[in-house]
Amino acid sequence: MNPPPRPHALADEGAPALRRQVVTPEGVPIGFSLARAGDRAAAFAIDMVCVVAMLGALGLLVLFAGIGARVLMSLLLVAAFLLQNFYFALFELRWQGQTPGKRLIGLRVIDAHGGALSAEAILARNLVRDVEFFLPAQVLFASEQMFPSVPGWARLAASLWALVLLLLPLFNRDRLRVGDMVAGTLVVLTPKAVLLSDVGGERVGPADAGAPHSPFSEQQLGIYGIYELQVLEDLLRQHSDQGERDDRLAQVCATIQQRIGWQSDETEAVPPEDFLRWFYVALRAHLERKMLFGKRRADKYAGE
């Protein structure tokens, strides 16, 4: 289970309040826009409508099957329990951090430390939903039924506690609910996955530098997707302090070479920036060829 994301979800200097930055395993800082409270509420409302619709469809199916009212109620209670506890987790596992509601609104759950969103984090953030939403909602709207013999001041205190849990995302700078704090996740606006303008020819390409034609295999290029191409695009376009930029290029170059299984002697005496530009050109061409045949790889986690 990941620790809370505070140390790694840093606000960009001078950036809007909802802008945060995470560092990928390749060592590249990537900015994200945090989901607004209204967006998260809308996505959750859509998902709850889906849950209610599923329960209604199941109820009608069982009703038309001629099963008795007692059995019908038992089945609906079991289905409600399963949907309440596993609807969100299963969709986020299958859709890389999205549910139907999040997909419609344009939101996604990400790891706050820049890594892959793990199954453990998804399960952790969703298993506490009862404590942070469903139970507080019952306390807030049905306190007399839940605590019939409790004095009024105690019901008021319980209602205040429930209200704090329900509104917690409004009172912290990263819009985190309890599940996000436990799992180390953020909910962000989904970045648009589009191919940007080519930067491969701005300084050097494989032909210009004397590199062999198509030095990367299909298997090596198939590891990364459009999102990683954008990350590499941004890195190559950066004009920060030269020493800092060179260090970052070297770090990313080493990470990519290790990930694709590139032999060190093949890149001997080749500067990291040249290698990255070669890889950018080859990866972009590879992705464009795939897109021509309707095969679109959004990122390196797609299909895993």
UniProtKB/TrEMBL annotation:
Domain of life: Bacteria
Primary residence: membrane
Domain RDD: 35-184
InterPro entries: RDD
Protein name: RDD domain containing protein
Segments crossing the lipid bilayer: 41-64, 71-90, 153-171
Subcellular location: Membrane
Keywords carried by this UniProt record: Membrane, Transmembrane, Transmembrane helix
Membrane topology of the entry: Multi-pass membrane protein
Entry-linked Pfam families: RDD (PF06271)
Entry's Gene Ontology cellular component terms: membrane
Organism of this sequence: Haliangium ochraceum (strain DSM 14365 / JCM 11303 / SMP-2)
